[in-house]
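Data card: per-record layout.
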Amino acid sequence: MNTTREIALESKAWPMQEAVKLLKRFENNPPEKGYVLFETGYGPSGLPHIGTFCEVARTTNVMRAFREISDIPAKMICFSDDMDGLRKVPDNIPNREAMEPYLGQPLTKVPDPFGTHDSFGAHNNARLMAFLDDYGFEYEFMSSTDCYTSGKFDETLLKILENYEKVINVILPTLGEARRKTYSPFLPLCPKTGEVLQVAITDINAKAGTISFVDNDGETVTTPVTGGHCKLQWKVDWAMRWVALDVDYEMAGKDLSESVKLSSIISRILSKRPPEGFSYELFLDENGEKISKSKGNGLSIEEWLRYGPPESLGLYVFQNPKRAKKLHFDVIPKAVDEYYTHLSKFAEQEPKIQFTNPVFYMHEGTPPNIQLPVTFGLLLNLVGTTNTDDADIIWGFVSNYAEGTTKDNHPEMDRLIGYAINFYKDFVHPTKKYRAPDDREKQALEDLVEILDGLPENTDGSDIQTAIYDIGKKYEFENLRDWFKALYEILLGQPQGPRMGNFIALYGVKESKALIESALKGEML
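The structure for this 525-residue chain is written out next.
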């Protein structure tokens, strides 16, 4: 019989396949540092968005898979490039005008427009860490500013200076003619202003560990490349981190594929094997455009968590990482229900299937056993039909439908009711638009009232669904989807909705009959 580890090794789930690839890296020798290091990178030039969370979540999925098939310890660092210069003021922050004078300054020297932290970089770092901590990620945070100024990068910076020509010749062919004339991998910090300068280097002294350049006042300045006096251009900086920190695994978006290639070449110049990696597709906003920290398009982490639990976000980023996906409010309800569906199936699945279930990777192999009496989609429609933001009223319907289910013994259900109310108030209610039934639909609805009138209150949703289906056939709807669409538009004021039999069972037979009668009288319009 195969062991659990052998079963895991055969899994086709993408995190496990990535973990197997990483394990092969050490098939001859374990890492000298004693552990495998996963890295995720973050640029705090704008407020953290879900794309940042996604990279941490997906890397965590791989790290958890690796721990399942290897005894080598593993840890993850979340690296913030907070020494980068502020290139432009983001669109989605307050006091934008006050930040203009700080363009070019390291992000950890730019004042916090929110007034809560020592710098804009510190503010954004804190917001990211707060969410990662709330979600329960296991990581070590690293600041670029701290690493540069503490000397942690000094040894590798000197190696780059010693290999200056080799390194620069990797990057120059990718630049335009004008940029090639001034490009240097080293960005000195101006001793007078503290600004991160993009200037041509006039002299290199590898022995002394210094570079010379002409500052904005026309004076020649010689400065060490160590101790935080310089930082590196992006692609070289990435390679430097891989070498200095001995990174074994880092994934990146498809838009950075060329950067991965160039940074890997530089890493080899510095006699270090580049990390294993994974290229994922990007998230898009409602218009199909790439989400951006500076634009603030797409969803923020906080926005998703107003309408769905963190686990639903974890599932959404787990699924199909090599496919571009829309990241907008309307994807949340489906993600919520899919998460709880995976959760409900896990305990009964064979180990081979469990290793393909996303919740295995999201919950370190031991997901909670939660069975919901009502789906999130049904809750949304219940809230919409009752037109209330009173959770106790919603609980009344749920308790009648699922006898014995209460706020006290099912806190997960209570949490979802809160999300459903928020979603309804912000998105469903403002767009509701009821219509009157046509003659055929009116006759069909009258039949449905008659059938409901003869049903006991606790009739199963599947039996009600069959009755609705039969009415649709009786009135010869060419496509039965049109019949159900009519029910959604006439009774719920929306173009799509739940499985109507289950909804009527949840809402109540008597209440549903009254709802239909109200629609027939035109009272819904």
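Known properties of this structure: Residues 376-431 form one domain. The CA atoms of residues 182 and 200 lie 4 Å apart.

See the next section for split statistics.
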